[in-house]
Amino acid sequence: MIVWSGRGFLSLLILFITIFLFIPILPENYITQSFVIPLYIAAVFSFFFGIKWNKTLRVFIDKETGKEINFKSNHGLFWINMEYWGIIFSVLALLMLTQSLDKQGTEFYLNLFLIIIGIAFLVYFTTTLFKIKNSKISSFQFQKTTTEAEPKPSFVKQEISTNKFENEDPTQYLPK
C-alpha cells in the first residue's frame, strides 16, 4: 500500500516513468545505470518541487472572530516530506553504484562519474535544507485570505433570505 499526502505520489510516479524510459534506451551491460539515472532524476524532482510545494503557508482570517488560522502545505510519501525523498533517492543510487564499482573499463569510469554527481547532489540538498530550516519564517510564502473574500451574487442572498423552511414547525418531521 502506498501512502501519500498532497502531491507526494508524484515522486514515485516520476521514478517509475523514468525507469521504464531508461531500461530500453541503455544497453544490457549498463543495467545499474538504467536504475541510477532515474533515481537521480526523481531525486532532483522530489527535492525542488518538495521545497516549492511544502513551503507555502496559507493564513485565513475568520471574519466572525478575527483570528488568523495558519495552514501549512504537506506533500509527502510514506509520511516523509518530498524534499527528503530527494536525499533518500540519491543515497539509494549511491548504494547501487558502490556495489558495482568492481567493473572494468568505461563502465567503471561512468560509475565513478555518477558517484561524484550523487555526492554533489547530497551536499547541495543537505546544505539547502539546513539553510531553509535555520532561516526564520520569512522563507514561507504567505497568502492571506478571508472567509468572505468574494462578494456573493445577489441571487444567493435572496435565496438565503427566502428560505421556505423558516416558518415551518420542525417537529412535524419527527417520528410519532
Please give the structural blueprint:
Elements: E1 4-5, H1 9-25, H2 33-54, E2 56-61, E3 68-72, E4 76-77, E5 80-81, H3 82-99, H4 106-134, E6 141-146, H5 154-161
Parallel strand pairs: 2-6
Antiparallel strand pairs: 1-4, 2-3, 4-5
Number of helix segments?
Answer: 5
Instruction: Give the rounded overall mean pLDDT.
Output: 77
Q: Largest sheet, described in full?
A: 3 strands, antiparallel
Record field, number of beta strands: 6
Estimated structural class: alpha+beta
**Shape annotation:** elongated
**Strand proportion:** 5-15%
Secondary-structure element order, N to C:
EHHEEEEHHEH
Separation of termini? Answer: 48 Å
Number of domains: 1
Radius of gyration: 26 Å
In helices, the fraction of residues equals 40-55%
Description:
- By secondary structure, the protein is α+β, with helices and mostly antiparallel strands.
- The chain has one domain (4-56, 71-142).
- Helices cover 53% and strands 13% of the residues.
- It contains five helices and six strands; from the N terminus they run βααββββααβα.
- The protein has helices spanning 9-25, 33-54, 82-99, 106-134, 154-161, and strands at 4-5, 56-61, 68-72, 76-77, 80-81, 141-146.
- It has a three-stranded antiparallel beta sheet with strand order 1-4-5. Strands 3-2-6 form a three-stranded mixed beta sheet.
- A hairpin with a 2-residue loop joins strand 4 and strand 5.
- Helix 2 packs antiparallel against helix 3 and helix 2 runs parallel beside helix 4 (106-134).
- It is elongated.
- Residues 146-163 have low confidence and may be disordered.
